[in-house]
Amino acid sequence: MLTGRHQPRQEGRRGSARWFGNGAIGHRRTGHRSLFELELWNNRPMGTEAKTEGTKRELAALEQDLERARRAAEENQAALSALDEQRSEREGRLALALRAQQDYERRLEGKRAELARAEAEAALEGLKKQLRNRDVSAQAFASAAQAVIKTLQDFDTAQKEVEELRQAILLRAPLEARAAAADLAEDSAAPPAVFAEALTRLTEIVSQRAGHDLERDLVEAAARSPMGYDISRLPAHLQGLARERFIAIGREARRNQSKEA
After folding, report:
1. What is the pTM for the complete model shown?
2. Span 115-127, pLDDT tens digits
3. Distance (Å, rounded) from C-alpha 184 to C-alpha 166?
């Protein structure tokens, strides 16, 4: 069955005129058309009016396609503009964030420096306080040592007088007195136990202190020897201390050179 514009229009009247492909005009017969007539109808030449209508339809279709393409271009252009605006907004926010970051970094660095200064000042104040405490303790020790020395001298004097009196009694006193002095000989010859115990303890502390000071002097001398050569000559338990002191001396010397430069 033929469809579309090529399908011939059915006429209601008998004998109506029609156009054939060879240019002849004939009359439509009633009933079914022949295949020849249909072929002629399909292959008939298009008139000017038909061509115009087809062109109009094509133009309308092209205009619709153009409108769709224009709308798509406008939509994409709008999307790109929105992206540009978002990019500009993001760049502005990024610039603000970077400036804020730099500001916070500067403030943080300043606060760290402030904290370091405060800690250094606190440490310095603590050092000064401990130095004052040390000086007070040193003064108290000096006073105590002077008192101990004075007490030892008084004890020695008293002990000497006890011995002299005992000897005088043994040589010149009557027999009864000599017997009483002999009975007291054991108590008078030796110092009291409480004194002996205190003196022993004091002697031990002083000896340890003297030995510590001596070891400290040995470590310092070895650490300051050329290239630390004398460190290996120290006792084993002092060599580690001497090496640490040697490193500290070198670090201090380099720091002083940097300050001078």
Report:
1. 0.45
2. 999 999 999 999 9
3. 8
